[in-house]
Amino acid sequence: MDTQEKSLYSSLLIVVIVVGIVLLYFIITIIRYQRRSLVLHKEKIRAEIDTLENERKRIASDLHDELGPLLSAVKLQINNLDSQDAADKLLIEKSSQHIDTIIRRMREISNNLMPNTLLRKGLVKAIEEFIESNTQVYKLSIKLIIDGDSRLGLDKEINTYRIVQEIVHNTVKHAKASLLVIRINQENGLFILSTTDNGTGFDYFARSKDNTGLGLRNLQSRAEIMGGEITCMTEPGKGTSYTLEIPV
Which of 69, 84, 171, 244 has its CA 20 to 30 A from that of 36? Predict the structure, then answer.
């Protein structure tokens, strides 16, 4: 190899090295940008969900601590009214019953917004209470199976509880199912929540693309901010199964 060929070879080698370095720089930049975008996306979702949960807590607290006692005081005042007229007595009695109904519904709404059981006794007890209070309303048989330890941090338990609520709501609204089985267990360092119904199923990809897929995106967002993932197995006529996996 003469001097001219060596010079050409060296020049080509330098060009290749420079191009390689530039390409590597751009690849690293793109990867960093994608990672930064993913982090920002998760932070945005987390902020939105935290804001929503804080607002739910505030409303639930207002209903329980302010409106509840106020309605109880109104009921007491109504019951203390002294009237000899039969029509007035009947009106007082009905008014008292209406207030009882309002207080009961207000407690149900407050509990749905932020269950005290979830804060005091944890996820499983909150789900059990949710199932017990809604089985008759939804006319859906819900079976809960617990295998092993099921405790998580409070934030994860709140998000998991919301996922259960969303799945039950979707099952009642869309699946036309008579049975929903919910199983909770831990395996290989993962908290696993799985649900299966015997409903009509649906086209997952079509649903996730249109506006009716907001519930599905909500499930995915909550799983994502917990560092986990949720999968859905379904097809028309064959029911629907969800599996949520969260690092413990």
Answer: 244
Q: How far apart are CA 79 and CA 24, in angstroms?
A: 80
Cα dihedral sign, 137-143-146-150: negative
164 compared with 65, residue with greater pLDDT: 164
Q: List Cα–Cα distances, 148 to 37, 145, 186, 223, 227, in angstroms.
A: 37, 10, 7, 21, 21
Instruction: Output the DSSP codes for 30-98.
Output: HHHHHHHHHHHHHHHHHHHHHHHHHHHHHHHHHIIIIIHHHHHHHHHHHHT-----HHHHHHHHHHHHH
Return the DSSP state at 173.
I
- Tell me the CATH number of domain 122-247, given options 3.30.565.10, 3.50.50.60, 2.60.40.2470, 3.30.1490.190: 3.30.565.10
Q: Is 203 helix (H, G, I), strand (E, B) or coil?
A: coil
- Alpha helices by DSSP H, listed for the chain, are 3-62, 68-79, 86-113, 116-121, 123-138, 154-170, 204-209, 214-225
Structure tokens that stand for 163 in this block: 């996922």
Whether 49 contacts 159, CB under 8 Å:
yes
- The pLDDT tens digits of the residues spanning 207-238 come to 766 655 567 888 888 998 898 999 999 888 88
Q: How far, CA to CA in Å, does 206 sit from each of 122, 234, 235, 236?
A: 36, 12, 11, 12
The string of pLDDT tens digits covering residues 168-221 is 988 888 888 899 999 999 888 899 999 999 988 887 777 766 655 567 888 888
Kind of pairing, strands 190-197 and 141-147? unpaired
